[in-house]
Amino acid sequence: MFFCIKLKKFAACAAAIFFFAAALIIITANGLEHAAVSTAADNSTERDEVFVPVIMYHSLLNDTSRAGDYVLSPEVFKSDMQYLMDNGYTTVFISELVDYVEKGTELPEKPVAVTFDDGYYNVMTYAYPFMKENGLKGVMNVVGKYTDLSTEQDEHNPAYSNLTWNEISELYQSGVFEIGNHTYDMHSMTARKGCKKIYSENDEEYRKSLYDDVAMLQGVLADKSGVTPVTFAYPFGLISDESVDTFREMGFKALLSCYEKPNYISRLDTDCLLCINRYNRPSGISTEEFMKKLLKQ
Q1: How many domains does the chain have?
Q2: How many CA within 13 A on the CB side of residue 86?
Q3: Among 66, 82, 115, 130, which is most buried by a count of CB atoms within 10 Å?
Q4: Cβ-proximal residues to 51 (8 Å cutoff; 6+ apart), any chain
């Protein structure tokens, strides 16, 4: 009888010890799992923010007498692209940045965006063949009025011509370029200064003026070139805060500025796309010197 009582007490103690140990294991496991999730979240946050340098080119000409802040020789452009390739950078479309933010689509390890403003024909003459041969991507931001004039004249002179509607379509269909909107007829320093709000305008008048011009180019690009841009580039980088909501309502996903600052693109943060900074590429400095500024984080 005494033996049975001791046996029962031993069994009860053993059971208690077992349940205590099991509970301890569960608590420890949950703690480790929580720590692992926290660490993964921290790492994910780090990975979600991507440094994306963006270059702004304009005209490419072999005429050294015209070299300046917005005119570069084709050889220097090729040197820039070769430098990026040699250092592991991959060119991306601005729409790929949009997909990264909105859909979580992966970007290459070292992305860089190459943009061209104003729609010069010489970019198609000198940059396009090199880019196509080397698997590079670019963004061509076109001005509608310039394109209309070049389409009417159809001179195809690299010294001064702009792209025609058919040439814009060709660049887009090639997969080498995506097309951005750079206004139909607001690329000038008149009283408005680009597409900024005029002092005398009220908000409604400004939104209508901006919408009418930019929507006109959207419509013509769709009709004549088969393109509907999701990117808008501010002429001269002159930004009005009131324009952002108008562009969002029109379906634009990314707005390009001329601020020379680094870009950090984050998943689910659409605001980071509403003022993408770009470094203008002038003549007069070496590829190495320009890249040192562009690639500094």
Answers
A1: 2
A2: 9
A3: 115
A4: 262, 263, 264, 297
C-alpha to C-alpha distance for 225 and 171, rounded to whole angstroms: 10
Rounded to whole angstroms, the Cα distance separating 262 from 264 reads 7
Is the separation of the CB atoms in 106 and 50 below 8 Å? no
> Which pLDDT score, from 0 to 100, does residue 230 have?
98
State whether 12 and 74 are in the same domain: no
pLDDT top residue among 283 and 44: 283
- What secondary structure letter does DSSP report for 273? G
| Domain-ending residue, one of 49, 68, 83 | 49
pLDDT digits (tens, 9 = 90+) for 245-258: 999 999 999 999 99
On the question of pLDDT at 126 being above 90, the answer is: yes
Average pLDDT, the chain: 88
Are 71 and 139 contained in the same domain? yes
Of the listed ranges 19-33, 58-72, 90-104, 178-192, the one predicted with least confidence? 19-33
CB within 8 Å of 22: residues ≥ 6 apart: none
**3-state secondary structure (DSSP) of residue 67:** coil
64 shares a domain with 35: no
Task: State the residue range of the domain holding 40.
Answer: 1-49
Final residue in a domain of this structure, among 49, 69, 84:
49
